[in-house]
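for ur thesis appendix - Putative O-methyltransferase YrrM. copy paste whatever u need, i formatted it the way the template wanted (i think)
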Amino acid sequence: MPFAETYATEDPVLQTARALAHELGLPCVSPGAGSVLRLLAAAGSAKAVVEIGTGTGVSGIWLLRGMRPDGVLTTIDVEHEHQRIARRVFLEAGYAPSRTRIISGRALDVLPRLADGAYDLIFVDADTTEFAACTEAALRLLRTGGVLIVNGAHAGGRINDPSARDVDTLTIRETVKAIRESEDWIPAVIPSGAGLLTAVKR
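the 3d part is after this line
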């Protein structure tokens, strides 16, 4: 296991959330990737954060731990049952219900209802089919200097394999390329976990 992953330690609450995700067959951010989420939230003194893909609350806890004490995490997921678990996990981690806004629904239905330029950080941990639409929405939702983070930039290790032509890999390649070539973003890929495509809005 890479040092970046063992360097990031998780307490019993995070370990429980991760075990619950594993039981449900849900992927979640690695400890190393989680520590990057916390770092970026803290570096930007994030107060308003959007997470696309609640899961069992693993990435949500990492984000909350980096955010300002008065910050609110808006987290979106289609699976109401997963969110029920996440709600309990957030409480166990010591976060009052007022610190999270848990919205059930498809991200592409929910995002248009969120306010322009109102967010400090957006974390996308959704189906690859929604990457393009989510990154497009992020450009509208983030303030100048806000941070976009997209999980899964390594495409399961296939990103540099020219013979990999599956839909997921092609979609991720297109997203990574579009962000890199856009005048709107200052991007980098952070190799923690499944790969974090990270970009600051100009």
